[in-house]
Amino acid sequence: MTRTDADLWRELYRRMVRIRTFEDEAGRLASVGEIPGALHTAAGQEGEVVGACMALRRDDYMVGNHRSHGHPIAKGAALRPLMAELFGKRTGVCRGKGGSMHLADFSVGSLGETSIVGSGMPVAVGAALGAKLKGTDRVTLCFFGDGASNEGTFHESLNLAAIWRLPVIFLCENNGYGATTRASTVMAVANVADRAQAYAIPGSIVDGQDVVLVYEEVLAAAERARRGEGPALIEAKTYRYADHAVNLGPGFAIDRGEELARWRQRDPIALFKARMLEAAIAQTEVALIEAQVAAEVADAVEFARSSPFPSFEEAFEDVFVERLPLPESPSGCA
Ligand SMILES: Cc1ncc(C[n+]2csc(CCOP(=O)(O)OP(=O)(O)O)c2C)c(N)n1
Ligand SMILES: [Mg+2]
Predict the structure, then answer these.
(1) Of all helices (H) and strands (E), which one includes residue 273?
(2) How high is the pLDDT of residue 332?
(3) Ligand 1, atom 17: closest residue by C-alpha
(4) Domain around 93
């Protein structure tokens, strides 16, 4: 293993552990009422989240969805403002007005997320169109679920991205369920990636529990996109450990039988840790990363707890952008 590989591997591991620790803590704090509202965790999915984001440059764009604490973390965002946002505090990435499902951090290219399933895909297409019109070589990575792939926005977005050859990577996180509905019961095709054919773009399936495979697949798609060869659809097969969300009530519990235990045996973090140790990265180094991350997350929680809530007046700030100067209409119409 080269030194560069070892550095990359350590960072892949650090970001996966960061997400798991953040998610476990956020889930616990939501279940005891310290974090308000519904909160969707992605523990179990760290391999695809980190593999995909680490294949991008810092100035590339990324769009998430409702299960998106991990996406900005994987893109390199600082933990304090993310945790503060979950608490609804003024120091949060959206000044406490967005909460768990609306994290955006432009400093790392994280354009944001929304609770409306499927709504991130047109946003990603717009970002990719903007990058292309401006003549940059930035790519946009768009995360969405298997459930979202059954919505109209998926099909419209892939079609537009294909005909305009936009630099966008559609990354489907197929975690087997949309809320409590098993994905296979609401799809006519076996794989989301099969749908790529309908738009004449590359479609591929990758093991989402293998962070390195995801990294390589997304890196290749990003290089193609930068060369002007257009979009790609990548389906990462993965699994989420928790029920759909914390604070939604028992109606959202899934009876999974043995399935959960089987997937836990393919935990992306445990698999990669074993691989790092086999590749002669020292156990002490791995333990140091884990200890540093635990301290970082504890610090983020303390920061969030001790930060102020926004004032009532602030509710009316950041609602509208300054109106852009529009050119005169040639016909004289308003
Ligand atoms: C347009 C829309 N329809 C329905 C919902 C309710 N809802 C929230 S998450 C979700 C499931 C989404 O499943 P998937 O896209 O597979 O993402 P996952 O939660 O599995 O990560 C649903 C139906 C919503 N928020 N928006
Ligand atoms: Mg799903």
Answers:
(1) helix 268-278
(2) 42
(3) 145
(4) 3-316
Q: Is the CB of 181 under 6 A from ligand 1?
A: no
Question: In this structure, what token pair is assigned to residue 130?
Answer: 């903007």
Cα 148 to middle of ligand 1, angstroms: 7
Q: What is the CATH number of the domain that holds 198?
A: 3.40.50.970
Cα separation of 82 and 12, whole Å?
19
Determine which of 61-70, 149-158, 315-324 has the lowest per-residue pLDDT on average: 315-324
Ligand number with the minimum distance to the CA of 237: 2
Confidence of residue 326 (pLDDT cuts 50, 70, 90): low
> Residue 147 C-alpha to ligand 1 middle, in angstroms?
6
The number of distinct structural domains making up the chain is 1
- How does 56-84 read in b/e, with b if 16+ C-beta sit within 10 Å? beeebbbbbbbbbbbbbbbbbbbbbbbbb
Quick: pLDDT tens for 248-262: 877 888 889 899 999
Which residue bears the tokens 């600082």? 78
Q: Other CB atoms closer than 10 Å to residue 252's CB: what's the count?
A: 14
Please state, in angstroms and rounded to a whole number, the distance separating the CA atoms of residues 254 and 182. Answer: 10
Q: Ligand 1, atom 4: nearest CA belongs to which residue?
A: 117
pTM for this entry: 0.95
Distance 108 CA to ligand 2 centre (A): 25
Domain-embedded: residue 334: no
- Return the amino acid letter for 28: R
- DSSP code string of 16-56: HHHHHHHHHHHHHHHHTTSS-S-B---TT-HHHHHHHHHTS
Residue 201: HSE in the Cβ half-sphere, 13 Å Cα cutoff: 30
